[in-house]
Write a structure and sequence with these properties.
By secondary structure, this protein is of the alpha/beta class. The protein has 15 helices and 22 strands. It folds into 2 domains: about 260 residues, Aldehyde Dehydrogenase, Chain A, domain 1 (3-Layer(aba) Sandwich), CATH 3.40.605.10; about 190 residues, Aldehyde Dehydrogenase, Chain A, domain 2 (3-Layer(aba) Sandwich), CATH 3.40.309. The mean pLDDT is about 100. Keywords: Oxidoreductase. GO terms for molecular function: oxidoreductase activity, acting on the aldehyde or oxo group of donors, NAD or NADP as acceptor.
């Protein structure tokens, strides 16, 4: 569908810098059309009147169609996001399928409640769909994040207006086409590609949008809180940035495994990951030994053409983001940190935007590298002497999305996991849980809700009390 203005914008391939396609540039007029369609579908269409089991069957059919198009969707995502094809086909698309199926299956398994009100009185507590939900997606995991939003939104009986990141619109448009093919009614799943300043703001300010779910930077998340205050006090659910710590105690008995997990946590997806463990806080007595292992494993990451199966790290999403990552590297040098691994732009001849795995040691906890989210493959290393110092350093951040602790002492692990102020804390591994566990952050990493699990499903509903006095 053409934009109301007739405008388009270019989608570029991060691995080559070349144009892939022209995409319709939606703005406030297009958001108006999409919201009107979503409102009509919610209030007058069949979607809101379907029994949960029937809604479940349609979403399961949608998931199966997505699964059948795994190869196609993986190529689209690789081309527009610069991600390795092995990640897109082996993780991102399967995660989208699994998320759709999990929430579909939950749709007819959530029960309303009766309150313990006593004889002659009946208090029913029911959950009803919240209405029209605006979902504003990031570019780092276009399909996975689409699933984390639209899975619970649709399964709970809502309709949605989705704004994909302008860098990665094509994959979202394609799954919307598959939703129609699966039989999802018209107006239930709407996509408005465009820019945050226009289409995103229009969703946030729209008086007929009941809720906005946003994943992206903390700075933009603040805008959506303001949009809500300036419009209809719509519910706002934010999953924002991070500066996640990984603590390695001297008693960690498998430094090889710790090094592997640390590299996975910071180099996976080129570090363009809100929960990346970008701060290594290591006990001084094992620092040198651990850094040797990290240096060895960083060389195993293959930076290359994302369409080649052997590539394990692709490109930065765009030239402006590449420049930001490189500026952090320059600043770290100037601040006196030691570059132990990498530190350079690579594959410049390809026209793409690549940075090699990079590790800085002797990082001042007050430096820019230690405090700001880089969103690139850059690890900041700081040593500590006591467990108390480690926890203080871990929590000395504006963010609180994730954290990790490596230790063989159960008491230390438990106390550290409780003390770290983050939405997810992993012990002796790098991980964010699975579909059954909520994902979101403390402090400036999140606001108002969680992705994944039954918590995500319930947050797209409203609680209603129905009171009957039969005495």
């Amino acid at each position: 569908v053409e934009a109301a203005s007739g405008k388009t914008f270019a989608t570029l391939n991060p691995a080559t810098g070349r144009e892939l396609a022209q995409v319709a540039e939606g703005d406030a007029a297009d958001v108006d059309r999409a919201v009107a369609a979503a409102r009509t579908a919610f209030e007058e269409g069949p979607w809101g009147r379907l029994a949960p089991v029937d809604r479940k069957m349609l979403i399961l059919r949608f998931a199966s169609l997505v699964e059948a198009h795994t190869d196609e969707l993986a190529v689209i995502e690789t081309l527009e996001a610069g991600k390795p094809i092995s990640d897109c086909s082996g993780l991102d698309v399967p995660d989208l399928v699994a998320t759709l199926r999990w929430h579909a299956e939950a749709a007819d398994k959530l029960y309303d409640q009766l309150s313990p009100s006593g004889p002659g009185k009946v208090g029913m507590v029911v959950r009803e769909p919240i209405g029209v939900v605006g979902a504003v997606l990031p570019w780092n995991y276009p399909l996975m994040m689409a699933g984390w939003k639209i899975g619970p939104i649709l399964a709970a009986g809502n309709t949605c207006v989705v704004k994909p990141a302008e860098q990665t619109s094509m994959s979202t448009i394609r799954i919307a086409e598959l939703a129609v093919e699966a039989g999802i009614p018209d107006g239930v799943f709407n996509v408005v590609p465009g820019f945050g300043e226009t289409a995103g703001a229009a969703i946030g300010l729209h008086p007929d949008v009941d809720c906005v779910a946003f994943t992206g930077s903390t700075e933009v998340g603040r805008h959506f809180l303001r949009y809500s205050a300036d419009s209809n006090l719509k519910e706002v659910l934010l999953e924002c940035g991070g500066k996640s710590p990984v603590i390695v105690m001297a008693d960690a008995d498998d430094l090889d495994a710790a090094a592997t997990g640390i590299c996975e946590g910071i180099f996976w997806n080129g570090g363009q990951n809100c929960s990346a463990n970008s701060r290594l806080i290591v006990q001084r007595s094992v620092e040198d030994e651990l850094l040797e292992r990290i240096a060895e494993r960083s060389r195993d990451w293959v930076v290359g053409d994302p369409l080649v199966a052997e590539t394990t790290m692709g490109a930065m999403i765009e030239e402006a983001h590449l420049d930001k990552v490189l500026s952090h590297i320059v600043d770290a040098h100037e601040a006196g940190s030691t570059c132990a691994v990498g530190g350079n732009r690579v594959r410049e001849e390809s026209g793409g935007w690549f940075v090699e795995p990079t590790v800085f040691t002797d990082v001042d906890p007050d430096s820019r590298l230690a405090r700001e989210e880089v969103f690139g493959p850059v690890l900041a290393v700081t040593a500590f002497d006591t467990p108390e110092e480690a926890i203080r350093l871990a929590n000395d951040t504006d963010y609180g999305l994730a954290g990790t602790i490596h230790t063989t002492d159960l008491r230390t692990a438990h106390l550290a996991a409780r003390a770290i102020r983050a939405g997810t804390v992993a012990v002796n591994c790098y991980g964010e849980g699975d579909i059954t566990t909520p994902f979101g952050g403390f402090k400036q990493s999140g606001f108002g809700g969680r992705d994944k699990s039954i918590a995500a499903h319930e947050q797209y509903t409203e609680l209603k009390t129905i009171w009957m006095d039969l005495s």
